[in-house]
From TrEMBL:
Keywords of this entry: DNA-binding, Transcription, Transcription regulation
SMART domains: HTH_ARAC (SM00342)
GO molecular function: DNA-binding transcription factor activity; sequence-specific DNA binding
Organism: Spirosoma arboris
Protein name, per record: Helix-turn-helix domain-containing protein
Gene3D superfamilies (alphabetical): Homeodomain-like (1.10.10.60), Jelly Rolls (2.60.120.10)
InterPro entries the record matches: AraC-bd, Homeodomain-like_sf, HTH-like, HTH_AraC, RmlC-like_jellyroll, Tscrpt_reg_AraC-type_HTH
Domain HTH araC/xylS-type: 189-287
Transcription regulation recorded as keyword: yes
């Protein structure tokens, strides 16, 4: 296990001429980047549509089975790894945060899509059978545009990506519409954005409710309706996630991580982490080291 989790940029991974966008079939991409089975981060947006394959993939330490017509989305900074079984194929798209800036007036355009909110359970989606051909068509069109030097080629890629994002977003929107109003969903999105910006300093639901001009009880009700947990738990989940991301960096001691996350002392951080994660920070780190070593052994036996 490396002492510091690697962070990859598009220019290190790209096999293509554009530095801000990379589109490929997944099998050749995987053949070139075999090291990506280990835990790593990206400084770009990343999505994969699986068409065939098995095994598992992890996003922020949540494990998902690989299955055909599953698509997942990742934002910069999330931790990711793979453990595939047998041949795997599909499509992969990587793009920088600035890829849409010259095309759209809204700087926050991507944040309106639920799968780009950094919440793991919102970012892995099984495509319903009735729209699988439509989704596959978008990826094939994106591949074709990326391989040509046509006039407005990159703008066509951007337009196709937006159509793909809207199509996928409507799937999750349809699921959520039966649970609560779009107004409440918008409140949850704003709550999540505030947590992302303030989780290191604001820990109480009432502090966020005040910023959202809501009562703490109403905010709590929305979280339970949409996420099945309390507003306080939503905050704690984000803190634990950051702790896990830092724990896989072996250059950081547990005490340093506790300090980074604004805990009063290491003992309090350890108790908090164990209550939320079920293991101590040390036990989590040791388990991750063993998991990486097993993955390295499997890869070694294959190669």
């Amino acid at each position: 296990m490396k002492k510091d989790i690697p962070v990859y940029s598009i220019d290190k991974l790209s096999l293509f001429k554009q530095k801000d966008i990379q589109i490929s079939r997944f099998a050749p991409y995987l053949a070139v980047h075999k090291n990506l089975h280990l835990a790593h981060k990206h400084d770009f947006y990343h999505l994969i549509l699986f068409l065939e394959g098995g095994g598992t993939h992890d996003i922020d330490f949540h494990t998902f089975p690989v299955r055909p017509y599953q698509i997942y989305f990742m934002i910069p900074g999330q931790v990711h790894s793979w453990s595939f079984e047998g041949p795997v194929d599909g499509y992969v798209i990587n793009f920088s945060g600035s890829f849409f800036h010259s095309f759209l007036a809204r700087a926050d355009f991507l944040s309106q899509f639920s799968f780009f909110n950094g919440i793991v359970d919102d970012s892995v989606i099984d495509i319903p059978e009735e729209i699988q051909p439509k989704v596959k068509h978008y990826f094939e069109a994106l591949l074709k545009e990326s391989d040509t030097d046509s006039t407005f080629g990159l703008d066509m890629v951007r337009a196709l990506l937006i159509q793909l994002f809207i199509t996928i977003h409507r799937i999750s929107d349809a699921e959520k519409s039966g649970k609560t109003s779009l107004h409440n969903y918008a409140i949850l999105k704003n709550f999540q954005k505030l947590i992302e910006a303030n989780y290191n300093t604001l820990r109480l639901p009432k502090e966020y409710a005040e910023k959202l001009f809501l009562t703490p009880n109403y905010l709590n009700t929305i979280c339970r309706q949409l996420m099945g947990v309390s507003s306080g738990e939503v905050i704690r989940i984000r803190i634990v996630m950051e702790a896990k991301r830092q724990l896989v960096n072996l250059d950081l001691t547990v005490a340093e991580i506790a300090y980074n996350l604004n805990f009063e002392d290491t003992s309090y951080f350890t108790k908090f982490f164990k209550k939320q994660a079920g293991v101590t920070p040390k036990e989590f780190r040791e388990a991750e080291i063993k998991r990486v070593n097993r993955a390295n052994s499997r890869l070694g036996s294959i190669t």
